[in-house]
Specification:
The protein is of the alpha/beta class and 349 residues long. Helix content is 41%, strand content 16%. The chain has 15 helices and eleven strands. The strands form two sheets. The protein has a six-stranded mixed sheet. It has a five-stranded mixed sheet with strand order 8-7-9-6-10. Helix 1 packs antiparallel against helix 5, helix 2 packs across helix 10 and helix 5 crosses helix 13. The longest helix has 20 residues. 51% of the residues are buried. Pfam families: NMT1 (PF09084).
Length: 349
């Protein structure tokens, strides 16, 4: 697979892992925040359409958290026809919120990518089955058909991780590429299970009145890393203060949302113009409720610190399933160098 193919692949995968409503046609959209003079210009890339899963970025802009950290933010939503890392590598963006597993696969092609901060503490992948399904655990997927958008991106990696956690081989299940039709495919019985995301597909199915159960992956043992704050080594090395400021301000906004979720809806509504009626707002609240724990983690406080051992396990797993096309080591793809220490956070609070 060549570099352009990887970029197309991760673009599709990002749609599955971060976007509630899926990929829709459209040009990139952006907005430059207002901050005090002297702040550094930083463009933050977000995938495709505005969504409350990006609320920490919206809140950090709206509440001036980026400005207080010395950042003059431009928030840029990607166009539907651009790759996840295309603008970043072209210098049109400075950081992008993207799934760690997809960044690792792209880095294996020699692309200059590094994760500088944790966005999701836990991996949101989940196996979804009808409530009355005989599938009670991952091992019960043996002999069943599992629906995924295609053999690429986070859904695919999560499906393979679920099989591994259930002690299954590829020959034990049937993987069916169904596009982004998980809801219809499951409801119609086209597949026995789908792999989706607990704060996305599962939420939408329940809102649609579909009676489902989730079978979680292996928790902390799952060898995958979800949404992360990704940049290039070149930018991080030449803008260390801005890199640290982005991580700190974004995670501060996560804690602000946990303390008062309505600030997330208020900030997101300036971007997501669909949040105008009770149904849309109810859906956004449901997604937010499922997403806050992903930001805060078991500690209940977001700090941006990345689990280097999990990254190492992920690289080993992705290599074992043959999706890494070159060598990627932990030191090259992830760093906590730009995460503020407890003392630094305390002194600035």
């Amino acid at each position: 697979m060549n570099v352009s193919a990887v970029l197309r692949t991760v673009a599709l995968g990002a749609c599955a892992s971060l976007i509630l409503a899926g990929c829709t046609p459209g040009a990139p959209s952006e907005h430059r925040g207002s901050t005090p003079d002297g702040a550094a210009d930083v463009t933050i890339g977000l995938t495709y359409i505005p969504n409350i899963q990006f609320a920490p970025v919206y809140v950090a802009e709206a509440q001036g958290t980026y400005g207080a950290a010395g950042i003059h933010p431009t928030i840029r939503h990607h166009g539907s026809d651009e790759g996840l890392f295309t603008a970043l590598l072209a210098g049109q963006e400075d950081v992008v919120i993207a799934s760690g597993d997809e960044a690792a696969v792209a880095a294996s092609q020699g692309l200059d990518l590094v994760s500088i901060g944790r966005y999701y503490d836990a991996y949101p992948g989940t196996v979804i089955v009808p409530a009355d399904s005989s599938i009670k655990g991952l091992a019960d997927l043996a002999g069943k058909t599992i629906g995924i958008p295609g053999e690429y991106g986070s859904n695919y990696y999560a499906a393979l991780a679920a099989m591994r956690d259930g002690g299954l081989q590829a020959s034990d299940v049937t993987i069916s590429s169904i596009g982004y039709t998980q809801r219809a495919a499951l409801a119609s019985g086209q597949v026995d299970a789908v792999v989706g995301f607990t704060n996305n597909d599962a939420v939408q199915m329940r809102l649609a009145g579909i009676d489902i159960r989730e079978i979680p992956l292996g928790g902390a043992a799952t060898p995958l890393v979800g949404a992360s704050i990704i940049t290039t080594h070149e930018w991080a090395d030449t803008h260390p203060d801005q890199a640290k400021a982005i991580v700190q301000a974004t995670t501060e906004a996560m804690d602000a949302i946990a303390a008062d979720p309505k600030v997330a809806v208020e900030a997101t509504s300036k971007w997501d113009t669909t949040l105008t009626d009770e149904t849309a707002l109810s859906g956004a609240h449901a997604v937010l409720t499922a997403t806050i724990p992903l930001w805060s983690g078991q500690s209940g406080q977001a700090d941006g610190v990345q689990d280097l051992k999990r990254w190492a396990s992920m690289l080993s797993f992705l290599s074992s399933i043959g999706v890494l096309e070159g060598s990627v080591d932990t030191d090259s793809i992830v760093t906590n160098q730009f995460v503020s220490t407890d003392e630094e956070r305390s002194s600035q609070s």
